[in-house]
Amino acid sequence: MGELANLTLLPPLLTQFVITVLFSFIIGLELHSYRLANDQDLGFGTTRTFTLIGVAGFVLYALDSQLLAFVCGLLGLILLLSIYYYRRSTEPLFSLLSPMLAILTYLVGPVLIRFPNWFAVLYVVTILLMLGQMPQIRRFSNAFQSNEIVTFSKFLIMVGVILPLLPDHQIAAVVPVTYYRAWMALLVVSSVSYISYLAQTYLVKDKGLLLTGMLGGLYSSTATTLVLSRRARELPQTSQTTQAIILATAMMYLRLLMLVFFLGHFAAGTRLLPLFLALVVASLIAIWVVSRMPAMSEKSHADVPLNHPLEFRTALLFAFLFVAFAAITAVVIERYGSEGLHVMSFVVGVTDIDPFILSLLGGTFHVTDTQLIAAVIIASGSNNLLKAGYAVALGRNRSTTLAAGWLVTLFVVSMAYIFWFLK
Q1: N or C: which end of the chain has fewer CB within 10 A?
Q2: CA distances from 236 to 6, 231, 312, 316 (A)
């Protein structure tokens, strides 16, 4: 039995038998508890029945090395369960759960004998979790939207099919990025956005503005600020609107740090870390100060829907922008040096900065860590100016004006850091 057998003085076969009885008994006990909790009869079998099924599977598997007895027993069990299911299939509350659990319990003994101990424990724990969490699983299934499987399939295609097929060589002489790294950069942003979408849609139902700012900022603080500013017109002047916009930008800094480290620029990331963490902490303090303002103390629980982040057209557009910015950046660096890169970083800040940042991080440009850091800081600072403009122009109330003021402050701090501290 391995490690589990060494923990006892019993012979290995007896140890395996005892554990099989224990696991089968626990499965039957959990099914009985579920029936009592839900006041439903979903099938046959008591705790004793499932224990005996587990014992039968263990004995028949150990009895014959050719496994003929075990296979005959399994086929006989399936036949009896099929007859039982057919007789009760017309009942409105009847389920296939008990027959499936009976077959899985029959396999507990062979799993204990054949596989490592960790897998045997994982096998039983998975059964117990699926059974013990059935109400939560049912609620999740009822809330699950019909198009989510299609979306998940698209994500699997992007990760498991397209990425391995892409060659890891440079796209062109003027595009210092490989096909593989271009798609990998796309997947980094898509993965963060997809996780944020799933968390906001299914894990937390009472979303609210603050959660929208936090999760939305993980994949696009610009888009999140735009949505929140538009919604601010329809809401009373509430501190949560200001806090959500500031929080989205704080999440942007964390996202940029993740991208820098993930794409291998550890030296640049280490130098960026103090500044960006300081801006995040300062933003959190600003959020706390705004929440204490008496004139802005109203609470809002309005939901701001998060747009679905995984569409092939969006992905292809992002990939195109990634390659385009990589080519333009290469030309700018070659002709104008670091000054041209700084100007370009500022101009790019009035758009979505992710393609530019990722092309800069994922390319093979001849830039120093200082130039790369400056480009990231300038682009993020310029982007804060854009978001401040969105907040003022679209929100048109005090809550968005306060947020815009903080975004302008972050821009000033970023430029001051470039001028006085970045060497």
Answers
A1: C
A2: 67, 10, 37, 38
DSSP calls for 341-360: HHHHHHHHTTS--HHHHHHH
Backbone torsions φ then ψ of 74, nearest 5 degrees: -65, -45
Question: Which DSSP letter does residue 292 get?
Answer: T
**CA torsion 294→296→299→300, rounded to 10°?**
180
Closest among 374, 376, 385 to 410, alpha carbons compared: 385
pLDDT tens digits for range 354-376: 767 777 776 656 678 888 888 88
Residues 399, 369 contacting (CB under 8 angstroms) = no
In angstroms, the CA 83 to CA 96 distance is 12
Which letter, b or e, does each residue of 159-189 get, where b requires 16 or more Cβ atoms within 10 Å of its Cβ?
eeeeeeeeeeeebeeebbbbbbbbbbbbbbb
Q: What is the pLDDT of residues 46-74, one digit of tens each?
A: 788 888 999 999 999 988 888 888 899 99
Distance CA(206)–CA(303), nearest Å, equals 8
**Rounded distance, CA 261 to CA 270, Å?**
8
Separation CA 290–CA 299 (nearest Å): 12
* Torsional sign, CA 15, 18, 21, 23: negative
The residue to which tokens 């002047």 are assigned: 237
For 133, which DSSP code? T
Task: Tell me, yes or no, whether 132 and 182 share the same domain.
Answer: no
Alpha-carbon span 51 to 413, nearest angstrom: 68
- Cα atoms in the 13 Å half-sphere on the side-chain side of 238: 20
Name the maximum alpha-carbon separation found in the chain.
82
3-state secondary structure (DSSP) of residue 208: helix
* Backbone torsions φ then ψ of 177, nearest 5 degrees: -140, 140
Q: Beta partners for 175? A: 172
Rounded CA-CA distance 153/100 in Å is 27
Domain range enclosing 354: 146-420
Indicate if 189 and 61 belong to the same structural domain. no
Model pTM?
A: 0.57
Boundary of a domain, candidates 140, 155, 170: 140
Residue scoring higher pLDDT (24 or 226) = 24
Last residue of one domain, picked from the residues 96, 125, 140: 140
**Whether residues 7 and 154 fall in one domain:** no
